[in-house]
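To the wet lab folks,

You asked to see what we're planning to order before we commit. Fair enough. Below is the target structure as tokens, and below that is the sequence we designed to fit it. If anything looks off to you, flag it before the synthesis order goes out.
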């Protein structure tokens, strides 16, 4: 005689048990297991500390060599001092990849690859680019270090889609990128953009554009960003000058992370920089960006940057003009502002550096916003909040950021090298606050300032790993779910996907 199989719970009861367990697990997972973006640094305070140490070391070296001829090239800026003092830098261009700092410091660009010389400034065919053009160079699969044979203005027909492991190195030439779409970094990694002027970027698209030697696809309408970053990582933008674009000068959205924006010169624009897709897009909690040694100057209005979620380190920048605010945010981003100079505008209603966008004080009072060693000029004031007022930054504060009085020295070469750093001519288009287009289908990587809901995914904060006891609880509960799953008609009742 065979024993009768055990009676299984009623299907509705099984479903209730499963959903109850999931409801219990979700906050435990978020709090205890630090589900993060791939390549997100687990301890962002360590990265901030490393940046401070590099700045201090470069400034100390400059002081020690004050009586030496070499001090003429030293500024205390750790990026520039890494490569500019070598009189033969043009023969060792790829050394630049060793000079990064902050969250994007691991960006290799085309290091180790061959040198590709752009000799043709045209952009006639987006499907079959002409060899020798920038578009032909950036779509290749192999690592490339891309340089330019002469000064050139590249007027794009449509957005320039850059493949992984590329360096666009404009040193030694005056290189301008303008026109339709401008630069798109989408689903890629390890890109360095150096010494390029980007301006007058317009929306474009609804066409076929090649993104690799083996793939050309339909692109919807782009927003007209200067540099659009979408689901990408290990990126470094250095010594660029950006102005007069239709949407953002630099927008990074949809789970992008490990980014450094440094030594660049921003002018004549409304919404300068957006970091984060929308308030409900949880993967942007893993966004980590270093903004260092930049000049935010004439004709700027707001968003330097405007952040959603993530950890943003704003260090040793010069903010000389804004009309609304300098740094804004929503959805609880961490803002670590260190050693910057903020010069408020004459408008008595625009003296505040910070703005919590569409958020009540009851909600933002515990957001981690901190000012440390900043110089506040002409009535400027920074409103800190949350743990940024106390113990959260104890480690980062252990190395005092150098005085913002050295900002002139640290940002003296911000923007493109060897030429005018901005485009001061009044332009009749671009720089507007209105988004001119959005992604359609497989189209452009357009940013969003709305509240549209895209994929509700579970990603936690950057807190340290949980204790072993929490781990044991988690695996015990996970085992329970798996047992129930295997005993409910092979999981047929589990219509809700597990994102674990």
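Sequence we intend to order:
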């Amino acid at each position: 005689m065979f024993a009768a199989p055990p009676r299984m719970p009623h299907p509705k009861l099984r479903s209730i048990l499963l959903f109850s367990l999931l409801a219990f697990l979700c906050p435990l997972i978020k709090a205890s297991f630090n589900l993060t973006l791939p390549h997100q640094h687990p301890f962002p305070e360590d990265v901030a500390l490393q940046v401070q140490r590099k700045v201090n070391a470069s400034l100390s070296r400059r002081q020690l060599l004050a009586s030496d001829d070499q001090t003429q090239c030293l500024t205390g800026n750790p990026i520039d001092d890494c490569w500019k003092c070598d009189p033969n830098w043009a023969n060792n261009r790829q050394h630049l990849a060793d000079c990064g700092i902050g969250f994007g410091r691991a960006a290799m660009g085309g290091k180790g690859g061959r040198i590709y010389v752009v000799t043709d400034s045209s952009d006639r065919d987006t499907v079959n680019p002409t060899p020798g053009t920038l578009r032909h160079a950036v779509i290749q699969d192999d690592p490339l270090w891309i340089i330019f044979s002469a000064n050139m203005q590249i007027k794009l027909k449509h957005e320039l889609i850059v493949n992984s492991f590329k360096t666009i190195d404009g040193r030694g030439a005056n290189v301008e990128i303008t026109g339709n779409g401008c630069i798109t970094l989408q689903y890629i990694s390890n890109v360095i953009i150096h010494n390029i002027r980007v301006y007058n970027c317009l929306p474009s698209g609804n066409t076929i554009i090649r993104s690799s030697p083996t793939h050309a696809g339909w692109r919807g309408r782009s927003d007209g960003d200067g540099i659009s970053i979408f689901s990408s990582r290990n990126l470094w933008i250095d010594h660029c000058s950006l102005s007069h674009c239709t949407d953002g000068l630099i927008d990074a959205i949809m789970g992008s992370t490990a980014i450094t924006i440094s030594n660049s010169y921003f002018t004549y624009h409304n919404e300068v920089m957006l970091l984060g897709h929308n308030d409900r897009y949880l993967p942007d909690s893993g966004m980590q960006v270093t903004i260092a040694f930049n000049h935010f100057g004439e004709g700027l209005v707001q968003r330097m940057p405007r952040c959603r979620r993530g950890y943003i380190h704003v260090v040793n920048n010069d903010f000389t003009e804004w009309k609304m605010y300098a740094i804004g945010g929503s959805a609880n981003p961490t803002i670590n502002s260190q050693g910057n100079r903020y010069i408020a505008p004459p408008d008595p209603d625009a003296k505040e550096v910070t703005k919590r966008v569409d958020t009540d004080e009851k909600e933002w009072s515990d957001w981690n916003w901190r000012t440390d060693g900043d110089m506040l000029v002409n009535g400027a004031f920074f409103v800190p909040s949350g743990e940024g007022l106390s113990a959260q930054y104890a480690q980062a504060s252990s190395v005092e950021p150098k005085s913002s009085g050295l900002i002139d020295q640290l940002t003296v070469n911000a923007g493109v090298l060897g030429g005018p750093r901005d485009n001061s001519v009044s332009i009749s288009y671009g720089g507007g606050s209105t988004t001119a287009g959005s992604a359609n289908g497989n189209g452009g990587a357009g940013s969003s300032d709305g509240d549209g809901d895209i994929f509700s995914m579970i990603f936690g904060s950057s807190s340290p790993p949980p204790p072993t006891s929490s781990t044991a609880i988690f695996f015990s509960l996970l085992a329970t779910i798996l047992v129930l799953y295997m005993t409910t008609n092979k999981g047929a009742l589990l219509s809700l996907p597990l994102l674990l």
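Structural context that might help your review: The mean pLDDT is 81. DSSP finds seven helices and 31 strands in the chain.

Thanks,
Computational group
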